[in-house]
Amino acid sequence: MTQPPWHPEQLQARLPFLRRRAVLTAAVRAFFTARGYMEVETPYAVTAPGEEVHLATFRTERITPHGERRPLWLHTSPEFAMKRLLVGGAGPIFQLARVWRNGEGSDTHAREFTMLEWYRPGADMASLIEETHDLLRAVLPPIVTCRGITTDLAVAETLRMTDAFARYVGADLLATADDAAALAAQAGVRLREGEDWEDLFFRLLLDKIEPAIGRGQPTFLTHWPAAQAALARRDPADPRVAERFELFVCGMELANAFVELTDAAEQRARFMADRARRAELYGDVGWPLDEDFLAALEHGMPPSAGIALGFDRLAMIAAGADRIDQVLWLPSP
Q1: Distance between CA 233 and CA 138 in Å, rounded?
Q2: Three-class SS state of 281
Q3: Per mean pLDDT, which range of 28-37, 44-53, 211-220, 307-316 is the poorest?
């Protein structure tokens, strides 16, 4: 019979990893405090958990003192709440937040996990990349090994998505935008039944690019196609791409970052497109459009950049753990 995770033998086996996690938590807080950030806390149960098409959520319910029942959802990220605080004038902020994503579970995924998010008004993509690299070097050893991959943190690679597709896929990403057949032909792969351009983009990214980057050195994969902008603004110098990047260390995706979109009308249009796509694939989302967040954008969010970093994966790298459950005090049921 498998022992429960609280069993002394099980906990003792994880304690070296968990002690390293505790040290890491203190170091992260010290890093941001020294840079003038303020730690914040925002609600976990919200009226709208986000519009990301492929994330499954956990539903809960609030019962008012008068017996009224109101549906709520456990958030998948504190992003919307933290941006409201930027609108209110909170300035540079960070949060170590518990987040929930239903249907997930693997050696590097947990259903309930910790997200480190930070936002700085006035930051651009270059300064956020620099700050993220500074964080890695401040809280991790100079050379880290995780899941059999060793990464030297001294120098990071910045790689544009178009260059990554040219190097590892052999395709001109922007020239084939919205043309799945052309992208498949250039990539030398067969287009699957029902596969559209976005599906193929992510298949090639997962199969050909991600396994090749963030290994010997950290890789910041930047300037994503505008169709994958999410909550990032389009690049003023080239509107075909968005000011978005992901970070890979020890072969793992560690963070996702945006120069934030502050245009409420464009954000509403993106939300509506995402909701339509989600409904097509999975049915009605069940929650209303986040009008309060859109009202905050309309009021005026300062130009900012922000990033969401998987703290449990950072702890895996710090401790040299092979599985995410080794750095969790108790896994979620």
Answers
A1: 29
A2: helix
A3: 44-53
Number of domains the chain is built from: 1
Structural domain range at position 263: 8-156+217-327
Q: What is the DSSP string of 186-245?
A: HHT-PPPTT--HHHHHHHHIIIIIGGGSSSSS-EEEEEEEGGG-TTBPEETTEEEEEEEE
| 288 neighbors 71 (Cβ within 8 angstroms) | no
Query: Of how many residues is the chain composed?
Result: 333
| DSSP secondary structure, 291-323, as one string | HHHHHHHHHHPPSEEEEEEEHHHHHHHHHT-SS
What does the block give as tokens for 177?
A: 């935008």
Question: If you search the block for the tokens 């959802």, which residue do you land on?
Answer: 73
Tokens at 232, concatenated: 């990032």
Residue with tokens 């890979």: 248
C-beta neighbour count of 305 within 10 angstroms: 25
CA distances from 172 to 138, 141, 169, 182, 209 (A): 37, 37, 9, 9, 14
Is residue 222 domain-resident? yes
Q: Tell me the per-residue pLDDT of 221-260, one tens digit each, with 9 for 90 and over.
A: 999 999 888 889 999 999 999 999 999 999 999 999 999 9
Q: What is the pLDDT of residues 188-228, one digit of tens each?
A: 999 999 899 999 999 999 999 999 999 999 999 999 999 88
Specify if 186 maps to a domain: no
CATH number at residue 75: 3.30.930.10
Cα separation, 328 vs 274, whole angstroms: 32
